[in-house]
């Protein structure tokens, strides 16, 4: 879905493998190595629905994949989410900005995304309910992954709530999913 309109340029060249687990996985606790100092960070075990690694695999939890595919109206799709991270990581780091075609597109992207990201962060810090999932306020990288889910799952609603955001995503993905939805609805009504 994400690559449908993009020129074929091995966008997933850094997807070495896709590991599919049947159900929610708990990332094992990372034990400190023998030579590691004890004050180093130890990651606690946390349940995950998916994960994307820089220069590594994508991990997906199959029941979450099915649920997201069956309920686009909920705006959560772990496949779109993790593969958006992979597109973001194409330039080597997950910073919420995938490689863009030119400086103009980059300037527009940065202006719109940073404004909307800061708005989401401020609203979610105040405990307000937001159309875009508050998980996107964690970082610019999560923001891009979360708005990608909305762009493909609930394009009409995203277009209504954040038209500028819809437009920069449309120019990046070269797709107009809101137009597709509107066409489908008008065809059904005939
Ligand atoms: Zn993520």
Into which percentage range does the β-strand content fall?
Answer: 5-15%
Strand order of the largest sheet: 1-5-4
**What is the CATH homology-level superfamily?**
Collagenase (Catalytic Domain)
| Count of runs of 4 or more consecutive helical residues | 7
Overall pLDDT score: 89
Largest sheet: 3 strands, mixed
Topology:
Blueprint: E1 18-21, E2 25-26, E3 47-48, E4 50-52, E5 58-61, H1 62-70, H2 78-88, H3 103-125, H4 140-153, H5 155-161, H6 163-173, H7 177-189
Parallel strand pairs: 1-5
Antiparallel strand pairs: 2-3, 4-5
Helix pairs in contact: 2-4, 3-6, 4-5, 5-6, 5-7
Bound molecules: zinc ion.
Describe the structure.
The chain is mainly alpha-helical. The protein has one domain: Collagenase (Catalytic Domain). The protein is 46% helix and 8% strand. It has 7 helices and 5 strands. It has helices spanning 62-70, 78-88, 103-125, 140-153, 155-161, 163-173, 177-189, and strands at residues 18-21, 25-26, 47-48, 50-52, 58-61. The strands form 2 sheets. The chain has a 3-stranded mixed sheet. It has a two-stranded antiparallel sheet with strand order 2-3. α4 packs across α5 and α5 packs across α6 (163-173). The longest helix is centred in the middle third of the chain and has 23 residues, at 103-125. The chain starts with 17 loop residues before the first strand and ends with a helix. Bound molecules: zinc ion. Residues 81, 85, 142, 145 line the site of zinc ion.
